[in-house]
Amino acid sequence: MCLGIPGRIVDRRDDRGLPMGVVDFGGVRRECCLAYVADEANVGDYVIVHVGFAISRVDEAEARRTYEVLREMSQLDELDWMREVADQGMSMLGSPADPAAAARETGG
Amino acid sequence: MKYLDEYRDAALVRGLGERIRATATRPWVLMEVCGGQTHTIVKQGLDELLDDCVEMIHGPGCPVCVTPLEQIDKALRLAQDPRVIFTSFGDMLRVPGSDCDLQQVRARGGQVRVVYSPLDALALATRNPDKQVVFFAVGFETTAPANAMAVWRAKELGVKNFSVLVSHVTVPPAMMAILDSPDNRVQGFLAAGHVCTVMGWTEYEPIAARYRVPIIVTGFEPVDIMEGILLAVTQLEQGRAEVENQYVRSVRREGTVPARSLVEQVFELVNRKWRGIGEIPGSGLALRPEFADFDAEFRFGLQDIMVDEPAECHAGDVLRGQLKPFQCPAFGSSCTPERPLGAPMVSSEGACAAYYNYGRLRREVGATTRAEWGSAESDSLTTDDSPLTTDDSPLTTDDSRLTTDDSLVTVPVPEVPR
């Protein structure tokens, strides 16, 4: 439940006052809330993401290392979740579902 | 990638095992309170690697497993309400309630949707203004900031058809309940890395001092866990009882302040029942009165649902470390991941499911595992046959994969008898 996945912020925007961004998890991209790391993380930085929220900033080498180890251990439960939900065209906060865009985003 | 090799290095795990064994002059009993750590420990056999010097007790570290039956029954009531789209993390779908589980309700046509983030549930509410969208807000402190934000945001945006069924629990009171119990055997703790990423570790300092137990903030990978155990054993041998941080790459003493702050604004501490353990004072989070409009229990009048836990499931004894999963009479016979009696057999982070999935069907001799890991002198195992890198169990039932969700197109829901 408390699994966190490191990813790199590739886009950052403001959604009616809420800092949001797109985070890349080794090729899978997902919109995430950046509110809790807004003062310390920007595009290019790595963050640990839990249920769609960045909860801390980590350095790039650390993030990649953790990701690779998790992948080796087949423990990317959250990423599977994310991928499946994204495949069904679920997108964030009010934007209309667009399965084609979701498929492009996830590479699947 | 040098940093990668280091953590894949089975020799490093073995080396840490040798150091732990050399440090321990007597057997010590440690508890981890994190389902992710339980999963790693059992999957990699780290406890068996050390079973001559450290006993690992798997504490109540899986929020799915400790969610009380009455909260599951409330979720089931909501999921069968034709006005409601019930949203949840995937882990909760197969947790048995009194009569059925959420997956069965969905199969019968109930609108149960798996979401990745609570903000997805909020988005669903804005897209379905004619429906009531309820989110099952479970989890430890790691998840509380996400759920707090969904409620905060719903209030800010004036989303009237969104509410949450809250079943949040917090870790430190559970640790104290375990230490206070007369049959406690725990001498030191590994604290959960991502809980502490959010909360920091200041709450743990008075516990370490009062109960004289070392508490090591620990990560999730085999090397992290072995290092956390080594730090705990070293403290115990030296007669120290302090909070120490092994998971330096993620955790700061003060935690993630903006996240803690929003949790405190949205939630307040309440007494909360833990499945199989009972009520623990101050161990839960509930919405503050100013957010009561978003409390599904009030909105749908569910406050009076009270359910006693079934006697046939020994989850409480397992969660308190009084019983190893294989010592439960139902384990592997009337209780399996396919037909679970209780939540610890459902969640991949539950102790019972971990033992079942990784073949711990009876007491096994640690020497076998030690032989599998090899000696500290042998070459590093970075190939596919390394215990660190293989997913060797065909039995793995990973409930988060049960997320083949129905489409978001709204379909008519047949009335389900209450």
Write structural notes for this entry.
The complex is a heterodimer of chains A (108) and B (418). With 108 residues, chain A is an alpha+beta fold. Chain A has a single domain (5-88), classed as SH3 type barrels (Roll). Chain A has 3 helices and 5 strands; from the N terminus they run βββββααα. A 5-stranded antiparallel β-sheet of chain A has the order 3-2-1-4-5. In chain A, a hairpin with a 2-residue loop joins β2 and β3 (28-33). Chain A is globular, with a radius of gyration of 13 Å. Chain B has 418 residues and is α/β, with parallel strands linked by helices. Chain B has one domain (1-390): Rossmann fold (3-Layer(aba) Sandwich). Chain B contains 18 helices and 11 strands. Chain B has helices at 2-8, 10-23, 35-44, 46-49, 63-66, 69-79, 102-107, 118-127, 144-157, 171-180, 193-199, 204-211, 222-238, 257-266, 296-299, 315-319, 351-357, 366-373, and strands spanning 28-32, 54-58, 84-88, 112-114, 132-139, 162-169, 188-192, 215-218, 243-245, 267-274, 278-287. In chain B, the strands form 2 sheets. A 6-stranded mixed β-sheet of chain B has the order 4-3-5-6-11-10, sandwiched between helices. In chain B, strands 2-1-7-8-9 form a 5-stranded parallel β-sheet. In chain B, α7 links the parallel β3 (84-88) and β4 (112-114). In chain B, α2 (10-23) runs parallel beside α13 (222-238), α3 runs parallel beside α17 (351-357) and α9 packs across α14 (257-266). Mean pLDDT of chain B is 84; it is low at 1-8 and 375-418. The chains are: A alpha+beta (108), B alpha/beta (418). At the A-B interface, β3, β5, α1 and α2 of A face α1, α3, α8, α9 and α11 of B.
Which key phrases capture this entry?
heterodimer; A: 108 residues; alpha+beta; SH3 type barrels; 5 strands; B: 418 residues; alpha/beta; Rossmann fold; 5-stranded parallel β-sheet; 18 helices; 11 strands; 37% helix; 15% strand; globular; disordered N terminus; disordered C terminus
